[in-house]
Amino acid sequence: MEKQNYDIIATDNGSSIKMWTQGVPVEEAAKQQLANTARMPFIYKHIAVMPDVHLGKGSTIGSVIPTLGAIIPAAVGVDIGCGMMAAKTTLSASDLPDNLGPLRSAIERAIPHGMTPKTRGYRGRDEGSWNTPPAPVDAAWAQLKDEFDVICQKTPKLSKTNNYRHLGTLGGGNHFIEVCLDETGAVWFMLHSGSRGVGNAIGSHFIELAKKDMRTHFINLPDDDLAYLEEGTSHYQDYVEAVGWAQRFARSNREVMMHNLIAAVRTIITKPFETHVEAVNCHHNYVQRERHFGKDVLITRKGAVSARPGELGIIPGSMGAKSFIVRGKGNEESFNSCSHGAGRTMSRNEAKRRFNADDQALATAGVECRKDASVVDEIPMAYKDIDAVMHAQRDLVEVVHTLKQVVCVKG
After folding, report:
1. Structure confidence at residue 118 (pLDDT)
2. Residue 54 — φ and ψ, nearest 5°?
3. Is the keyword Nucleotide-binding in the record (predicted)?
C-alpha cells in the first residue's frame, strides 16, 4: 500500500483536516484557525491543507474549504481571483541583454504598479492606476462593463471604486512581474495579481454583510471572520454574481498585463520572438462549484490552485527563489488542489524587524530587482523552503518546468 503523504486531524463535529505539510513548519495559530473553520456545520468531508499554509484573516491561507449551502466571504478574501499567469517564449537566455536594468525599467513604465501610501493623505489619482488607460484596457473593460453596471445597481457604492483604471495594473504587496529562465534556458514571462481595488471593495462589502447577518440571527461563531452567507438568501446570490465577476476581472487583469509586458520587452529586445508557446492563467483565491466525492459542492481555495488531472498550474517561490510550472495529478483527497506558493514563515512586520536592505541585496543577488528597505518584507527568508513545500505535495502535482527569475518588478 502506498504511503499516505498527508496527516489527518479529527474535529469534534465529525469533519476532519487533511494536511499535506510533512516536512514543513505549520504555526500553532494556523492550526487553531483551521480547527475553527472545520467546526462550521456546512463543511463537506474535510478541509484540505496545502504545504504553504499560514495564518490568514478569517480562514487560513493555503487551505481548500468545501461547503454545502453556504459561502464564507472572508475565506475567499478581498483579493478575489488573485492568481498567476505565465507564458513561455521562443527567446533564450542568450537573447537577453547583459544589462537587465533597461528591461526592468521598460516593464515598470508599461505597467502601473504599487499604490499610494495612505499615510501621505493623497487624494488624487492612485499611483498604481492608469491616467489614460491604453487600448487593451478599453477592449477588456468592454467585456466586463455591462455586468458590472448590473452589480452596481444592487450595490451602488461599488461604482465609486477604482475599477476601469485598475484593469491591467499590478498592485503592491507580494504581487510581481518576472522574466524567468527555465531548466533549458528558455525565457518565460510570469506575473501575479488579482482583482485590485474593485475586488477588495466587493470582498469587504460582503464580509460585512455576512457579519451583519450573523448578528441579526444571533449566530455565534468561533471567529467573526467565519461569518457566512446561506444559499437561497439574496445576499448569497448577490455575492455569487459579484465574486464571479471579480474573478473574471482578475483573469482579464493578468491578460492585459501580459500583453503590455510583451510589448515592453519588444522595445528592448528587437529580435522577433513568439510568446504563449506554453501558457497558464490560474486563480488561487477564489470560489467555484465543483463535483467531488459524488456531490456538487462549493470549493473555496484560499491560497491554493486547482490541480485536476493534467491541468497546468503555477507555484511561485519568492524573490530570489525558484518557481514551478506544475501538472495536476487529480488527487481527490485534496479536492484536486495544490499550493499557491512557498508560504510565509513570518509576518511582514517581523521580516522588517529581522532583516535590512543589505540582507535583501544578498538574498536577491543575480536578480534585477528592487533591493531597498521598503521591499524587505518580501525577502526570501520570510518564506518557507520551496523545495520542502514541493516535496510535501509530490502526490498532488508533478513538476513540468523549473523557473528562476532574472528580472523582478514589485509594487
Report:
1. 56
2. -160, 165
3. yes
